[in-house]
Amino acid sequence: MGMCFPCPGESAPPSPDLEEKRAKLAEAAERRQKEAASRGILDVRSVEEKRKKKEKIEKQIATSGPPPEGGLRKRINFLWTVS
């Protein structure tokens, strides 16, 4: 009474094989990552699109080289003094 051992006629339940256990753990980890990434975000797709667009712009800036000499501020000052 109160013992936690299997009855002599019963066998222990089979344990899942190692590959099946790893697959389930990987699936659960992916699900948790997706849930954590979208926590508090109503439209996950728009956030992903904005992130990709930002990365694309940053990549273009990095590959285009340094900005032209003078920059925008000097051009604006030049327009103010000419008119």
From TrEMBL:
Keyword hit for Lipoprotein: yes
Keywords on record: Lipoprotein, Myristate, Palmitate
Highest taxon, organism lineage: Eukaryota
Region (Disordered): 1-72
InterPro entries associated with the record: SVIP (IPR031632), SVIP_metazoa (IPR055366)
Keyword Lipoprotein: yes
UniProt biased composition (Basic and acidic residues): 18-37, 45-59
Family matches, as PANTHER family: SMALL VCP/P97-INTERACTING PROTEIN, SMALL VCP_P97-INTERACTING PROTEIN
Name of this chain's protein: Small VCP interacting protein
Organism field: Felis catus (Cat)
